[in-house]
Automatic annotation (TrEMBL):
InterPro entries, sorted: DC-UbP/UBTD2_N, DC-UbP/UBTD2_N_sf, UBTD1/2
Protein's name in the database: Ubiquitin domain-containing protein
Region spans: Disordered: 1-28
Coiled-coil intervals, chain numbering: none
Organism: Zostera marina (Eelgrass)
Lineage: Eukaryota, Viridiplantae, Streptophyta, Embryophyta, Tracheophyta
Domain of life: Eukaryota
Polar residues compositional bias, start-end: 1-10
Residue ranges of every copy of the DC-UbP/UBTD2 N-terminal domain listed in the record: 18-114
Amino acid sequence: MGCIGSSQTKGDGPANAKKLQKPKCWKHTQPITRQQLQQMREEFWDTAPHYGGQKEIWDALQAAAEAELTLAQVIVESAGVIVTSSDMTTCYDERGAKYELPKYVLSEPSNLIENS
C-alpha cells in the first residue's frame, strides 16, 4: 500500500524509473552517411563491455536503444537499469555501475546523409 499520491498507486512503475524520451536533436561534427553511423554504433556496442559494468546490462541497453520507446521502457525496467537521464545517455545498474551511451547509438544526427 502507498499514499494516495505515490507513484505506485498511479501505475507509473518503480519510483526510480524515468519515462524514456527520444534524445534531443543533435549534429555530428561533419555530415555522415547511414553506413558510417551504423559502423560507429557497431564499434561502440562491440567495445562497450570493456568500459566496465555487466555484459548483461550492456546487452539490455543495446536492445533498448534499438527498440521503440515503449518496448525500451520495458527492457530497462526488466533489467533493473536505473535511468537518470530520460534519453538514456546516463544509466546505472542496481550495483551502482555507471553506463554512458553516446547519442549516436540512440538516434540519428540532423546532418545524416542518405546513402546513394
